Amino acid sequence: MIGTGEKGTRKLRLSNWVTRAMALGLLLGVSSALAAGTGPDATPSSIDLSGSWRFKLDNVHPDGTASDFGRDYAKPGDLTPAQERDRKGHGLELGYHQAAFDDSDWGGLEVPGTWGAQGHRRASGKPYYGPAWYRRTVVVPAEWQGAPVQLQLGQPDDCGTVYWNGEEVARIAKFGPHFNVMLKPGQIKFGQKNVIAVSVSNQYKEGGLIAGTFRLAAVRPFAQSGGAAAERMALSVDKDLPPVLTDGPDWRPGWRDEGTSDTRPRMTCAKGAYRGRDAVRMEVWFPNSTEMVDYRLPVGERGSVWRARGFDYLAFSVKSDVAGEMQMRLNKGDIRWKKGGPSYQARFHVAPGDWTRVILPFTAFLQKEASLADTSAIDTLAIGYGNNELQGKGTVLFADFEVGRFDLPATVRPVSLEGMWFFRKDDRRPDGQPSDLKDNPVDKQGHGRALGYADPEYDHAGWELLQVGTSWESQGVAYDGPAWYRQRVWIPAEWAGRPLAYRLGKPDDRGTVFWNGAEVQTVESFGPDFAGVLEPGLIRYGAINTVAVLIHDWYRGGGLGGTSFWVGPELETLAVRWRDEGVAGERAFEDFDPGPLPPAGREAEAVVRFPAAIAAKEGLTLNLRLMDCFHATVAVADIPLKRAASGEWEAVLRLGPEEARKLYYGEWIDVRGLLAAADGAPVTSFARHRVKLRYAQRDALALPELPETFEETPLGRLKLVDVIDAGAAPELGEHPYKEGGVRDFWGGRRAYSPWLKGVVVNELQGVRYREANDSRNFGYRIGRGRMKPGTQYLLRIRYPEDKTRYFAMDIKAGRNYQGVGFRTGVAAGDPFTPYPLSGGYEWCDHVVSLDDV
User: Over 90: is that where the pLDDT of 338 sits?
Assistant: First the structure.
């Protein structure tokens, strides 16, 4: 793709098929020295405000007597003046908002999270209805002076007010908005403690600071995160288990096949099964069903905490006496038939043996084809399996659940681009006159390019500040038309010469990305996320770079939505090659053409390379798995990384003849990799979904016409056009050939077992024939020379009739499609098919009409 900007023309490789698990962590601050290109300082640019706060219910008068809030859901006119006053609370009278107030005797409460879920309920079991207060202190770094400072405190339920050092700075009058305020320099004590107090009033739901982002941030150029990347947090999934899990409050049956039969697995506690600790036991007695079991995470262990702490993966240990594939899902609430959500699913494999560790990066969790980029809404973990994904009945044990952050070296960590960006409406012409955004087509396109809004030298200091990841209308900008976002980012010198991948959220409605003034990507109306790869020629290494985004909005809330905002080096490059061709024949997966016919005994190699900076010495191991589009494993192995001649680290997965044949038939491939240190600690992971191979040679293969031959048929004497011997090895023949199984089907894999070899060659009366079982299929492209459009052809299929078989045939002739089939007989007396088997070969004839084009 070629992108043209005001600074000239640049090349861009798009990479929208990549999902990557990266340790984003906290942002590092960038001092004023960045403008001179001297590098970032070590001062964090954001402070996480989630976690434990001081907390107190505002339910007593100053004299110590109890407040009277009136009856639940009372209208204002139904309350006495005293009750209305009590509902507002007495915290201000008691000085709860003042910086000097002593809150040492207050209790604690986690944010985000409702106070109802954390035990603040009335005797009736209903959550506390009334006002309450949160307090905490925060030290604002002295280095933040001169930078805009943003305070985000999530969503209050129902309403609330924020005080900073005793001064009111934000107020929300009804449920919906989030606290998001820019603090004034005179309000902040730099280098000292500052006090935040929040009054929240609830009269309807669970109450509290319930969701969203909780942080204090200096709006400065983005830079890499600092400090150690690796961090882990244990989850309570296997703690305090009752004998029968679903008898307790935390476990419940989840998503399952709808029907009359109860095929749920038995969920019990396996006492001392994991190194003397209890484990979750799942007894699967009916594997040909979809069954999930839900665990509701405690408030302090939910996805909002994972996101705030920059976690990348979910890990657990598993022990099984049955082989197959299982599912782990991360949900918001209860997921039931046709309701609930969102729900993200990841798959993992089990096999008989001892305990093994499973590490699932959040980017491996998919909803349809979209990866989980933001865990904030996740409150439920679900364990289970799909139809016929396990190879039989059995017992699976789970233990030692945790979430964590990858131990990625600082030099290769990406830079998070989440946070505040400079924003300006493009609603004026170059002469300063207002644009006509209703009727003037030139004004509708905006004049920002002509005014230099994309140029790196442009000074955006006077622009507004808006949060990315949410619409501009939700932040008070009521506007339809073109508008611009700008920010600056420090790119480390250590990345010199490497392409950089980026994600910049989803444009609403459409938009264009500029990097250092060059146009690099345009997404049309309500298209995909901004995602691509920047070539080295666009990048200023060891210096400040400028990102500008032009958004055109005419319908919805406008802005940069989505959840994924980062830029960083492409950590892994993937390639595949025929082993006998070596490096000279190496191609990226999506550029690899395996040839016109299946490989005849050839071996292949899948190659993954990482930058030299990812490790100082040997000791890393890559677990690499290739899956085809039919849910079957092509190959899997643990591969030690070796130093390549280029200085990069390299892992090579050897594919034998049978695995190379599976790769050929795969059509598209899922490539999943987990890189781990010698002690098993995860370093990084990647997942590439539905990577299509090229089949240009196969699809372009044209066979010459046969010598003129005529045969007698039930329709008379016809010219023979083509003949295929299905009993012969397709790699030794001439015709393009495919075989496979079930891809995506509403019924799952009820009648399909990916681990079986479903296409086989057998023999009857000295003649070999090809047979597909287990919901498999095989197919040939038939026809030689130039077939005549609009012409009818007779397709004759010779088949064995030695036993009962179902023959399902899919005949495609351009846009015409025939889904036909038949079943052979059983016995002469059978009430449904009362004809005998012949015991030999018979013919099935079909008239096929080609399209007229």
Answer: no
Running DSSP on this structure, what letter comes out for residue 54?
Answer: E
Residue 32 has pLDDT above 50, yes or no: no
Residue at which a domain ends, from 218, 253, 274: 218
CATH code of the domain covering residue 136: 2.60.120.260
Rounded-to-integer distance, Cα 21 and Cα 564, Å: 11
Query: Within this chain, do residues 442 and 535 fall inside the same structural domain, yes or no?
Result: yes
Q: Are 482 and 573 in contact (CB under 8 A)?
A: no
What rounded mean pLDDT belongs to the chain? 88
pLDDT at 517 over 60: yes
Q: Are residues 648 and 708 in the same domain?
A: no
Are residues 290 and 315 both part of a single domain? yes
Is 632 inside any structural domain?
Answer: yes
- State whether 247 and 386 are in the same domain: yes
Average pLDDT, integer, range 4-32: 32
Reduce the secondary structure of 228-258 to three states and give it as a string: CCCEEEECCCCCCCCCEHHHCCCEEEEEECC
Provide the 3-class DSSP secondary structure of residue 397. Answer: strand
Parallel/antiparallel/unpaired status of strands 324-331 and 510-515: unpaired
- The CATH number of the domain holding residue 588 is 2.60.40.10
- Cα–Cα nearest to 841, from 782, 780, 787, 798: 798
Boundary (domain end) residue, out of 568, 603, 633: 568
As a whole number of angstroms, the distance between CA 631 and CA 742 comes to 8
Answer whether 600's CB lies under 8 Å from 731's CB: yes
Burial of 782 (0-12, 13-18, 19+ CB in 10 A): middle
Distance CA 581, CA 603 (A): 10
* Domain count along the chain: 5
Same domain, 499 and 611: no
Is residue 29 in a domain? Answer: no
Alpha helices per DSSP H over 556-692: 657-665
For residues 761 and 765, give the distance between their C-alpha atoms in angstroms, rounded to a whole number: 14
| Residue that is written with structure tokens 């107190």 in the block | 56
How many other CB atoms are found less than 10 A from the CB of residue 340?
15
Whole-angstrom Cα distance, residue 542 to residue 531?
23
Which residue reads 């400079």 in tokens?
Answer: 422
As a whole number of Å, the CA-based R_g of the chain is 32
Residues spanned by the domain of 740: 702-849
The residues near 800 (Cβ < 8 Å, ≥ 6 apart) are: 762, 764, 769, 840, 841
Span 249-277, mean pLDDT?
89
726 and 754 in a common domain: yes
pTM of the model: 0.75
Structure tokens at 297: 């995470």
Instruction: Express each pLDDT in 387-408 by its tens digit.
Output: 999 999 999 999 999 999 998 8
Q: Which pLDDT score is estimated for 27? A: 31
Least confident of 165-169, 426-430, 628-632, 743-747: 743-747
Q: 525 with 510, same domain?
A: yes
Token digits of residue 470 = 């949410």
> Which is it for the CA torsion 408, 410, 411, 416, positive or negative?
positive
Identify the CA nearest to 248 among candidates 287, 194, 294, 282.
294
Query: DSSP assignment, residue 437?
Result: T
Q: What would the pLDDT profile of 110-129 be if each residue is shown by its tens digit?
A: 999 999 999 999 988 899 99
Q: Evaluate whether residue 268 is within a structural domain.
A: yes
Is 91 found in the same domain as 198?
yes
Is 415 domain-assigned?
no
Please give the order of strands across the beta sheet that includes 642-643: 573-578, 604-610, 649-655, 642-643
**Helix (H) / strand (E) containing 87:** helix 81-88
